[in-house]
Design a protein that fits this description.
The protein is α/β, with parallel strands linked by helices. It folds into three domains: about 5-45, lambda repressor-like DNA-binding domains (434 Repressor (Amino-terminal Domain), Orthogonal Bundle), CATH 1.10.260; about 60-150 and about 280-305, Response regulator (Rossmann fold), CATH 3.40.50.2300; about 155-275, Rossmann fold. It is built from eleven helices and twelve strands. The protein has helices spanning about 5-10, 15-25, 30-40, 50-55, 75-85, 100-115, 155-165, 185-200, 210-215, 235-245, 280-295, and strands at about 60-65, 90-95, 120, 135-140, 150, 170-175, 200-205, 230, 255-260, 275, 305, 310. A six-stranded parallel beta sheet has the order 2-1-3-4-5-11, with helices on both faces. Strands 7-6-8-9 form a four-stranded parallel beta sheet, with helices on both faces. Keywords: DNA-binding, Repressor, Transcription, Transcription regulation. One of its GO terms (molecular function) is transcription cis-regulatory region binding. It comes from Salinicoccus halodurans.
Length: about 325
Amino acid sequence: MVTIKDLAKEVGVSVATVSRALNSSGYASPDVKRRVLEAAERLDYKPNEVARALNTSCSNVVGVLVPDITNPYFPKVIRGIEDAAIENNYRIIIGNTDHDMDKESKYLEIFRQNNCAGVISATWSVEREEYSDKRPLILLDRVVENHISIESDNLKGGRLQAEHLTRQGADKVLIVKGPEAYSSFNNRSLGAAEMLEAHGIEYETLPYMHLERMLSDGTADFILKFNGIICPNDVTAYKVLNMLRESDVAVPRSVKVIGYDNLDFSEYVYPGLTTIEQPIYELGRNAFGMLMDLNEGKPAQSQVLDVKLIKRQST
């Protein structure tokens, strides 16, 4: 592995001069800086982020926490964060918590040991002591009082779901509610309920965990009494579509199903899933930009990005 000493020897200058040239800190003549950068590229020099962190207040590394990396929503978010990070000469460390607070604590300690420049978290337990070290923090798709966050307009998204089913003729609707620990899911179901009530449409709610258990046990016939089903995300909608297909229920003639996210698969399931599109990739990119603003002492405000209806064959 090429070190900064190897670069200094190659160029014929001191280690301190190489450091100034690489980091644009202090004076290095244009000619020396050019030769150092050319040598770094020629020798494939990779800076040691940990060593750099020991000599500065933070490293060029950002910690990212997600509750479930297997959820197809999160890879696209992470891609947005990573693309923005690389463009700004940063790298990311991803922590998959599996909704486990002990795992989350261990990842936060790893971030601390690496002097991460900040944390982007899509988990829900940010009021814990481990988050109190003053490291810049951006909440992703989660809203907690006194914290800066970025999310899509989930209240509007829920309203769009309900309004669309109403216009398509659904008059007995099931709202499948996502995990109550997350504000994003709460606002989706709240927006849907408000819109259905405004139109005088009969509806019931069902926690998604109950639906998951019913689908697993083969006891989900309960949902067949509804002619419209609002799902908290596309993954849940896929499972509902599969159950209806196995029960020989015609979609959308007998039951209309709408999801939320517009994942890449939603165009290709059968029937194609009507859903609410949120700008998943942009959520990640913007979250990184907000974190950098905080890290540089600039003012940063919470952001709410717009959503839109994507009409397909399931409604």
